[in-house]
Fold each of these.
Amino acid sequence: MTETIAETGTSTKRYNDKREALVSAATRLFNERGVVGTTLAEVGNSVGLVKNSVTYYFRRKEDLAVACFDRAINAHDALVGIAVKQPDVAARVVELIRLHVLLQGEITQRNQPPVVSLGELRALPPPHVDELFARYTAMYRHSRKLLEGPETAHWSRADLNARAHLLVSFVSGIRTLVNRYDPEDHPRLGGGLSRIFLYGVNDPASAWAASGAELEWLSQIPERDLAAQFLRVATELINEQGYGGASVNKIAEKFNLTKGGFYYYNESKGDLIAQCFERSVGTIRKAVNLTETFGGQAWEHLSSIVRGLVRFQLSEDGPLLRSTANSAYLDVENRERVSTELGRVAERIAGVVVSGLMDGSIRPVDATLASHTVLTGIMAAAELRRWVRTANEYNSCDLYARPMLQGVLCPVGP
């Protein structure tokens, strides 16, 4: 009897170990190629199993993807559970950021299993996506508790939700930064990110510029011809439903086109994704270029760029394509081009920050980390209405753009 129990325990451990190995392998492939672009056979091959053997552990790819997302959500929730024990809001945020940097560092060094990008969640069909969004919402609410305390009791519900969205988006973006730094620099990275997120980038003498100067150039951004509208609709569908959910038929139906009509305008769906990326990157570049034609200090330029692009995200001309989820679906050539273009835009933003360091309107910060923070917040603005239903292109500047630039603990309201 003892032998039977021991054998059963060994068998269970072997099963669980293989199952976890499949989740880790799938996570790496999903992060590289996307959920839609990965097959069960490819996951199996990476751990020495044929497809039929993989189905012993996961009947369908969607079941495997759910396990990957469960791991990512559980990992974040565990860190929140530790951070929430800190005595005040600032200490909790610092601890959460420190823990995320530590976790990603351990993952990079293969000391911890990888976690999948939550931006890929939309790639799953119902009912899997509905189940996971319910879990993601619970994770968001758990994270929101980190910002609840006596020092924030005067915040409105909208302010709390908007800033919680900033927090979740910010820590989710840390995974793209960590592998650029040596492990010895991770504490410095965490400290730099915490200071920017909590206290912003502007010098205390630089007031929040609420003049609406971005309206002078924002009207020059949109292109409203048929081709531009095609890309806007495709971007919106991909952001909402993922690459898989935004089918060719759904995109074509928005314009009363047949599937054949879609391919008249686009060689492939991947080609459309590349054009959507180019439209989004081009919009950010236009914002930087147009803002620099106005006078004033770099802080005014940076705040105008952020306010304008956040407003664009929530306007009828938005949104921008989320960069976190879709580059995996591009071919190698387009992926490299998109990566290069995104890198150049990040450098442009960093350049504005450096100018602010020189003219004194921006306090001493790491320009690379400030640029990362700004771009992460701008891209996440496309989902602001999920958490703040009353958010619009007019109130989003004070509700969302201000804490992005002046820090999550900055005063609420105009």
Amino acid sequence: MPKREFHPPHIYEDNACYFLTASTRHHHAYLRTDDQRALVRDVLKAAVQDYGVTLYAWVILADHYHLLLRTGQSIPLYRFIKRLHGESAIRLNQLDQTPGRQVWYQYWDRFPRDERGFWSYFNYIHINPLKHGYVTMGEARPAPGPQPRQAARVAGADVPVEDLHTVLTQYRYSSYHYYLRKYGEEFLNDAWARYPIPDYTEYDDFPEAGARVG
């Protein structure tokens, strides 16, 4: 039986998608615990459902998050962000007993220009826990013997995809687990191979001009 080919679905739509980054005030680690990150994840899930947003990829870290999404026709992005930041800030302050604390500082969006841009953002979001040290390649336990043929380009080096899967499964707060469960490793391997993970610095800078207060 011939080997089945896996191809990422063509879900990019012109002028509809956003790659979104938001940071906490002064990059304080307001989301350092599982309870805090789970709270933001749950608020995000509810806001996505209530505003008809299509969420393609997400990751929540201690001081920022990334989203890849498409908004509905009648809902501007700022309204979705206002709901996400407003409700999550209130609930985080209740959890931490810090009434009136400003949690969120800025959000910044980019538009994927084409399918390659879309999947580069997709891959970048899922690699973020490794980039920021929440998981490390030392956690991988590759089997002895020849390296697998498939590899992902990460920080200028080719990383065997088996190692990458082993590492990324250690971090709970991203959409990586959804795609692994629903589509399997071959789907993610194919996305990594076709659309290399871009240079890290390009997507975490917050330029003074054009930054939006959320």
